[in-house]
Amino acid sequence: MTTSKLVVLTTGGTIASSQTDSGRHRSGALQGESLLSQVSLSQGLTAEIEVRSVLQKPSNAISLDDLMLLRQQCLALCESPEVIGIVITHGTDTLEETAYFLDITLPGRIPVVLTGSQRAPHEPGTDAFRNIADAIQLAASPQAHGLGTLVLFNQTLFAARQVRKVNTFQLEGFAAPETGPLGYIDGTRIHLAANPIRPQPVSVPLAEALPRVDILPAYLGAAPDMIEAAIERGSQGLIVDALGRGHVPPTWPDHIAKAVADGTPVVIVSSCHRGPIETVYEFDGSLCDLVAAGAIPLQDLSARKARLALAVLLASASSGPLEASLKSLASASAA
Question: Catalytic residue among 2, 3, 10, 14, which?
């Protein structure tokens, strides 16, 4: 009889921190086995737990190559019949980006759950061990099947598509401002109030490096020459984190038109946490102007996640139209 196995991949972050002589935290210092040895698991959990230390770094240092490494490890585990779920411990700064990348590039055969902590393991009232135990409980549950990559934090379940870090230090560090959470976990009870609607995963060759895509923030008086500067430094695509309904300073559209004409895709998203962009205004720098310049408007996706979606599509073997593919990746929601 095959033994079921749940694999925990550790990557560092606050959840794996130790205390320095100065009283601060050394992020990612704890190896996976040391971290998991302090976690009290549910008595009803029958799966064998395997721990692998993949990375030992704060999440501000996670790179595109690291994302591809994590994906490769997850794909290999998905092919193993005894593996029933994967938990990834991760620093909170870029956790939402890693979760979304995995959500759009993994087949979803088994649950993948990301978690982290706002307080280091050695701090009073740490959330590290509770979050790990809950993530393992969720990843081992049949209820998590078919939901794609999930984020478990502070006893709350989030879809990778909607989750965002919303607090720098309090235990309720993540939220889904547009749709709300998928549900919660209370001990061994998992309550699902919604199911995420997921797009088809994008196939990215494992040997392929993700291309550089930069995010350009729009703000009062922002100079448009950052567009040319990013392209000159190697950007193969640009995400404009626009104002409100999708607006930029009036000096930007001509520069965006030139970038598009020269072969660099430019995607427009809103810097607002809630609400879609829309062509409801006509003035210099409006979304109407940007669409006329050849930019792609993208609804309901943060700039950080839009960047990964564009990078994945540029690296993929897909030959479909870029705009349609991007909108398919951004259209997932909760139902």
Answer: 14
Tokens 């078919």 correspond to 146
Residues making up the chain, counted from first to last: 335
20: annotated active-site residue: no
Q: Give the CATH architecture of domain 5-197.
A: 3-Layer(aba) Sandwich (3.40)
Domain boundaries, the chain: 5-197, 213-334
CATH of domain 213-334: 3.40.50.40
Helix residue spans in 53-200 (DSSP H): 64-78, 95-105, 128-139
List C-alpha distances in Å: 282 to 266, 272, 289, 292. 20, 20, 7, 11
Q: Are residues 1 and 12 in contact, defined by beta-carbon separation less than 8 angstroms?
A: no
Q: Which of 67, 63, 54 is nearest to 98 (CA)?
A: 67
Q: What is the pLDDT of residues 156-198, one digit of tens each?
A: 999 999 999 999 999 999 999 999 999 999 989 999 999 988 8
Q: Measure the CA–CA gap between 310 and 287, rounded to whole angstroms.
A: 19
pTM, to two decimals = 0.95
Phi, psi of 302 (to 5 degrees): -70, 160
Instruction: Return all residues near 110 (Cβ < 8 A) that are at least 6 apart.
Output: 77, 78, 83, 84, 85, 86, 145
Q: CA geometry: angle at 125 spanning 120 and 128, to 5°?
A: 45
What distance lies between CA 244 and its chain's CA centroid?
23
